[in-house]
Structures are given as C-alpha cells and as structure tokens.
Amino acid sequence: MQVNSNSPSFCGYKSEFSRKLEQYISSGIKNEIKEQELTDSFSKVIVENMIESNEKGKGVHGVVYGIDDDYVFKVGRFSVPALGKLKLAADRIGENLKTYYGGVLAKIGDVEIMRNAFKTKDALPAGLPRRIMSDAEKKAYYTDVYLKRFSSLPQEAYDKVAGDFKTLNLAGKEFDTINPNNFTADGDEIKIVDELIDTGSYGNNNLAKLCRVFINSFDDETAAVYDVAAVGGRKNIFKKLIMASEKAELPFGRGYDDRNELDMAMQLCGYSEKFGEIERTLRDYRNKYFDMDERLQKVAQFLKELDEPDMITAMFYD
C-alpha cells in the first residue's frame, strides 16, 4: 500500500458516522434499524470524502480515503463502490495487536471500513515507493530516505512488531511480508496494513520474515542489492530486529527459504559469515539465560561486539 503523506490531516476530528459506528460495535447487539441508519449515514460520507485530495493510500487493488482522524474506507481501485448491508468483522484478533491497522472493522456493501493508520504528515512505507525510478534514483532513495528513517526508529517500534508476530504465531495467522510497503513508519511507530493470512501453523512470523521486510526487499517484486553506502543503516536495523526477536522469543526461520533470507540479510549488512554463526550464540543464550533481562544484556553485548575486530587475528597479522 503506497501512502499519500500529503493527504489532509483531520487534527483529532471524529465524524458523527464514526461515533455511531463505535457505539454500535461496542454494544455487541445486532440491530437492523441501527445498521440501516449507519448505511444511510455512510452514503453521505462516501460522497463527501471519495475525492483525490482525500486519498490516504493506494495499492494494487484498492484506494483508501479518509473519513476522519480515526477511520478510513477502502474501495476497489477500478470499480464503482456498491453500498449494501452493514456487516461487522467476525474476526477480532486485530484488537490484540499493537501495530496492525489493516483489519476490516466493517463492510458496507463492498466498501471496507478500517482504522486510520497514518496520523502524521511524514508517514513513510518501508522499501521503495511504487513508481518508476532509475537505478540511481532507487539507490539514493533507499539509502537517503528509507534507511535514514527506519534505522533511526526507536527499538520499541521493532519490539512491538515482533510482539505482534508472536501473537499471530499463536493464532495461526501471519502478516504479508512480501510487500515491504505494508510496513509504514508513522512518527516513532511502525504500522502494518493489508490483510492477515491464515496459516494454521506456528512459526511463520519469524526473524527471517522481519529481515525480508526491512533489509532484503526493495519492493514486492524486487530483492535488495548490496550497496556499501547502505551497510551502516542495514546493520543498525538488523541489530534492532535481532533484539526485538529475542524479546519476543521468535523462531529464527522455517525451512530453506527462511534460511536464505537470513543469509541474505547477513550479506547485505556486509558480514562474510552466514547467519548460522550468529544463531548458535543466540540459541546458546536462550538455553543458558532464563532471566530475560540478563539474556537481553548478553545479546546486546554480543551485537555490540559483532563489528569489533577479532583482536587475536589482528595481532597475528600486525
């Protein structure tokens, strides 16, 4: 989903429609009269807000428009919206996630209503934007815009993403990590859009998938390439991902594809060894230090020393 950071800000404004929708959802009681009232009210909302200047984001299949500061609606990109009966979402797992804004709260006909993910003017999706760019432009944008922003995000932002990965593993669902644009920096937070995927299995949300989003992908079709100018930013993010993964005790990966993602992240960060060298230490810490604070201190020290020269080797070649 490509975010339009120039779309208008609603500065805390909440529409009458949004207030009534919140009240109806929180009541938990089905009422056909109230549902019809909401549908009638939304017909006015869509006429007033489905305008180009109010676009909040655009993806392959849909366009998102703002309702107010808290809610947005999504319509098909190449179709005329068809309003119909109100249907509330049956799956409420999104309520247990800290970073997820892609969940559909309700549908009115074929129009989806969701929470507004982007509340600042500097929302920036991970990876490269969905527009035609030369190789030089891609390299400059990736290093000077994307990496600069995401490497400066606080550790807590990545911790929350990893925490949601853990929650989804327990629920047998996963985020779409193929398209890095689904992960957007908004202020000091990372917010995730798009739909959840049912997997029915544990462990699909792991460190390898975090690396795929934030290090290994330019976009949903293009893998990142090595660039010495990008090494510093990538290492910064890589270490934050490892810390976040350890706090949530995420799996490292599942199978051949995940292993390749981990090794690719190592390569893009300028490390000559494969991820297995790091994994052995992290597994040892998980088995040895049961107190989380102590373990994280050990991991932080290990990551700090990761880029320090091997003193024995240095003395040998001195």
Notes on the structure:
- The protein has 318 residues and is of the alpha+beta class.
- The protein is built from 10 helices and 12 strands.
- The chain folds into 2 domains: 2-115, no CATH class; 124-317, no CATH class.
- It has helices at 16-27, 32-49, 135-151, 155-171, 207-216, 231-248, 255-268, 275-288, 292-305, 311-317; strands spanning 2-3, 55-58, 62-66, 71-76, 86-88, 104-108, 111-115, 124-125, 173-174, 183-186, 189-192, 197-198.
- The strands form 3 sheets. A 7-stranded antiparallel sheet has the order 1-2-3-4-7-6-5, covered by helices on one side.
- The longest helix is centred in the N-terminal third of the chain and has 18 residues, at 32-49.
- Residues 6-11 and 311-318 have low confidence and may be disordered.
Largest beta sheet: what is the strand line-up? 1-2-3-4-7-6-5
Helicity range:
40-55%
The radius of gyration computed from the alpha-carbon positions, rounded to a whole number of angstroms, is 22 Å
- Kindly, what is the distance between the CA atoms of the first and last residues, rounded to a whole number of angstroms? 52 Å
The total beta strand count reads: 12
Q: SSE order, as H and E?
A: EHHEEEEEEEHHEEEEHHHHHH
Shape: globular
